[in-house]
Amino acid sequence: MGGQTGDIVVLLARAEKLVARRLAAVLENERLTVPGWRVLTLLADGLGHPMTEVADHCLLPPGSLTKLVDQLAEDNLVYRRIDPADRRRIRAFLTRRGRETQARVALDLELDLAGACPAELAGHLATLITALESAQPAAPALPRR
């Protein structure tokens, strides 16, 4: 891979690694992992989310998510309830302690990244994500002979 597209892929991967490292340092004080933080951020809207949606957001397979949510529930950060609209589904929610933890960590993270990331960068990243989500997937590469 070369050219601008290859450069973008490498730069995004490097940026993700650097942000994850900073995030992990902030989360260490709360005894949270990056996937655990992803759960808290999704559930912070207070709506409750089906476990399949939580797994997709956290980039985890369902079995790994179950173990993670079990640990978060044990730490009194989340709880699960049967979805009243579809009793086959389970929805996850933040506890009061989970909401307080998420808000505190979000503020700590914002303060940590404030000096490193210009405000307009978030807008550019949001634009890039929207473009990537709406773009047609690339055709599979033909096998080389």
Automatic annotation (TrEMBL):
Record's keyword terms, sorted: DNA-binding, Transcription, Transcription regulation
In the record, what terms sit under GO molecular function? DNA binding; DNA-binding transcription factor activity
Q: Which Gene3D superfamilies match?
A: Winged helix-like DNA-binding domain superfamily/Winged helix DNA-binding domain
UniProt-listed GO biological process terms: response to stress
**Domain HTH marR-type: start-end pairs:** 5-137
Matching SMART domains: HTH_MARR
Organism superkingdom? Bacteria
Q: What is this protein called?
A: HTH marR-type domain-containing protein
